[in-house]
Fold this protein.
Amino acid sequence: MKFTSLPADMDDFSEAYLCVMDSNMNSDTNPQPEHEELEKFRRKLKYFFMNPRDKYKARGKKPWKLMLQIIKIAVVTAQLVWFGLSNQMVVQFKEDNLMTFRHLFLMNFTDTSRDSSAVYTQRDVHAHISYAVQQFLMLPNITVGNHHYQREGDVYTPLTVCQQFYSNGSISPADETFNINAQVDEECFKIYPMVPSSPLTSHPLNLTLNFERLLSVIVKFTLKAINLQTVQHHELPDCYVFNIMISFDNRPHSGRIKIDLDNDVDISKCRDWTLNGASASNIYMMVVFDVVIIITLAVSLVLCSRSVKAGVLLQFEYVTFFSSCYGKRVSLSDRMEFINGWYILIIISDVLTITGSVLKIIIQLKAVASYDLCSILLGSGTMFVWIGVLRHMGYLKKYNILIITLRAALPNVIRFTCCAAMIYLGYCFCGWIVLGPYHTKFRTLNMVSECLFSLINGDDMFNTFKMMEQKSCVVWIFSRVYLYTFVSLFIYMVLSLFITLITDTYDNIKQQMEGEPVSDLQMFITQCKPNTSV
């Protein structure tokens, strides 16, 4: 009987072991006393794959990472809720101001006309532009908010009116002739608000528009405001700069000029402020709480990274052992068993949440105002934290079968989805090019994709059929064939096959859990004899 010493230069798993190189090594006989090092390595593998409860029973090791993850779920969720309430005030303030500006500066605006504001006569175009200019000049006397002009030194920022038009051209639809110079010229002029402001009976607007060549008219101006509602939530108010743009779009030259008002918002710290009746400790308490969360997440990140490193080192040791003793290569599935995907998920979650927490502190200190980016980071991090709860539920056998099924079915699901996506994209392109001119839900590729995905889930089917315009008999018949075949194919065939993939995987996993271990790694670990010193 020959013994071969294997290399043992790993940091945490550097115990030497011996391997019996004979034909009886693959048998189910119990290891002999001289194989103590071999059995020690087997117990090391078994201990590595134990859950925290079994590790505590085996060596009395307390599950620090498990307790830390439970604490992290609570504090990260609390942080997200508080930030969500603060972010909600910001979003609501911006939306309310946008609606306010539309009512103030768009003539005859109503909430129902939000997406359909348009004018059809030259007189109405001039009236709407004049109305917007006059409302801007009278703003301090008509607004119920704290809006005011932006100041640059001793002068207020002016309102700018710009018109874009073809540099030269003549059009005669009656004779079916036109002569257009495609070069686009722009003409702008500025109107400064009066200081001090006073009610106006007239406006200094002298604008000449050539509607034959006119492409668009853009009215731009800047207003400032302060969001005072944050004071009630122990936060310092932000100062807002609204860059407002009113556009009159005449590019189609269809006789209908669309009117829209939009704004870009810049949020910053107010330059000079005094806040009475609120404790500074309350305002900065959240900053201290965020620092505590960052420290907690940093500890979690270090512990999980160390566990991932330990798994990688043990994988190298096992691959060397298996190759030397059995002369076989370790399969990819066995090697991946050493890489704990839950730890990878936790590491990603910790990195996202730490970054979001740092950004949140900067926002609370009014250095930046990247609310959207902070929301994405904190939201994604918290989502991964809650998904990680499945790891702890997996310690229970009845819950673990669900997790194993999802993991085993994922490769087949991805392959199946890629094949189904080819058919889905074909229907998307076909629906967009054929039905787009006659159906509002098929006007863009994005709308087509959303409509078809809704049909797969049985949503809004009747309206999708009903909204098809019957201007072309051929296209109308094609739309019926198109919709019926898509619904039949994806609901009755694709979804059924998709569900079958999951159920078949579930049945296979259930049989495997009730039977013998199927992988070489599992067979090797199960040969480990009981030992209280694991």
